[in-house]
């Protein structure tokens, strides 16, 4: 069979000049494809005499194998060249100093939640939780809040949408964590000592108020609990939280539907040089509300008010965080400003505990 050497030389030259995968595929199809020149020559073997067919077939197979081997070698060479180019372009000098990554911090609200949990746990309080979307009964009725109370109006409370023909009272975004106290008493009965930290919602927004904020409430029910126990508990909490040797609290008579008697609590402080100092000075600062749990609230939660009594209190977590760490504007808590978080945030390893100190 004549012309095989020229055919082989043509395709080997084409492979040598190919510069990419597409060019290689064109050469392969032209030489070895079903309609390629080698395949066309193979199809003519059937018309030859046996001896001539045997000799021609052997020569064609040699040419086919040489072209196929050259094709594979060229493909491997192109792959190596592509890898070398990629390594060159993606080269990294590992001896250069690394670029520092942004350092995450613990939000002051999360930190203060951990701090107060550690303090109250030391006094025997456990943590109770409940849903943020509450029924009208848990949020108001069970807490002795009458239908005409301002808190049950739309200017103060976020009501959930409901069908116009639904006769049931609408659900609300809880306005306090007091419903958790009801749920805890219904689930555990008495005696009980719990705190209920979490998000609450009210329609208010200024420098010291937000429509969503954080609150912690405490509840202690037993047979012989009095206001004296409440006073000691709050004094111990304030002393530990503000990390001062002593505090002085002042109880002022007040009114809350769910406690009787009720009291607002002030703490002695000073504002020397614009800096708040707890436990000294001639000024007073309101920090929380408290009182003895109303008998109707106990009865709503399934606790016999003739056998059990106790105290409850509530305070804003954001507010006490502002007081302790000198944060001037409540709205900054929710701005997600990394600069603010780096300044006021806490290390993830700074876990508060009473023996080691609550804060940095």
Automatic annotation (TrEMBL):
Q: Which residues form the Aminoacyl-transfer RNA synthetases class-II family profile domain?
A: 110-355
Cofactor entry: Mg(2+)
Task: Fetch the CDD domains from UniProt.
Answer: PheRS_alpha_core (cd00496)
> Do the record's keywords include Protein biosynthesis?
yes
Q: Which GO terms describe its biological process?
A: phenylalanyl-tRNA aminoacylation
- Give the InterPro entries listed for this entry: aa-tRNA-synth_II, aa-tRNA-synth_II/BPL/LPL, Phe-tRNA-synth_IIc_asu, Phe-tRNA_ligase_II_N, Phe_tRNA_ligase_alpha1_bac, Phenylalanyl-tRNA_Synthase, tRNA-bd_arm
What's the Enzyme Commission number for this chain?
Answer: 6.1.1.20
Presence of the UniProt keyword Disulfide bond in the record: no
Q: What class of enzyme is it?
A: ligase
Recorded catalytic activity of this chain's protein: tRNA(Phe) + L-phenylalanine + ATP = L-phenylalanyl-tRNA(Phe) + AMP + diphosphate + H(+)
User: What is the official name of this protein in its record?
Assistant: Phenylalanine--tRNA ligase alpha subunit
Record the organism.
Stagnihabitans tardus
């Amino acid at each position: 069979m004549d012309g095989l050497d020229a055919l082989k030389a043509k395709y080997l030259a084409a492979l040598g000049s190919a510069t990419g995968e597409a060019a290689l595929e064109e050469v392969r199809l032209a030489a070895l494809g079903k309609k390629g020149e080698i395949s066309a020559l193979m199809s003519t073997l059937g018309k030859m005499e046996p001896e001539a067919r045997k000799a021609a077939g052997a020569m064609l197979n040699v040419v086919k194998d040489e072209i196929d081997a050259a094709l594979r070698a060229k493909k491997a060479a192109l792959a190596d060249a592509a890898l070398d180019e990629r390594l060159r372009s993606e080269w990294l000098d590992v001896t250069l100093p690394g670029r520092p990554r942004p350092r995450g911090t613990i939000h002051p609200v999360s930190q203060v939640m951990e701090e107060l949990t550690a303090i109250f746990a030391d006094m025997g309080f456990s943590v109770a939780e409940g849903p943020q979307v509450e029924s009208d009964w848990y949020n108001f009725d069970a807490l002795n809040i009458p239908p005409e109370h301002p808190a049950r109006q739309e200017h103060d409370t976020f009501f959930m949408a409901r069908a116009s023909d639904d006769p049931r009272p609408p659900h609300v975004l809880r306005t306090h964590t007091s419903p958790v106290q009801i749920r805890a008493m219904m689930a555990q009965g008495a005696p009980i000592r719990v705190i209920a930290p979490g998000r609450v919602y009210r329609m208010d927004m200024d420098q010291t108020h937000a429509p969503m904020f954080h609150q912690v409430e405490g509840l202690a029910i037993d047979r012989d609990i009095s206001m004296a126990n409440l006073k000691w508990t709050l004094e111990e909490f304030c002393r530990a939280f503000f990390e001062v040797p002593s505090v002085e609290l002042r109880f002022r008579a007040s009114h809350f539907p769910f406690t009787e008697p009720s009291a607002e609590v002030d703490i002695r402080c000073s504002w020397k040089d614009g800096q708040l100092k707890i436990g000294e000075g001639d000024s007073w600062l309101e920090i929380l509300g408290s009182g003895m749990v109303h008998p109707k609230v106990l009865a709503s939660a399934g606790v016999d008010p003739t056998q059990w009594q106790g105290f409850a209190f509530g305070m804003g977590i954001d507010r006490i965080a502002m007081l302790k760490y000198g944060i001037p504007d409540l709205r900054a808590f929710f701005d997600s400003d990394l600069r603010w978080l780096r300044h006021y945030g806490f290390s993830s390893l700074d876990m508060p505990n009473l023996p080691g100190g609550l804060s940095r």
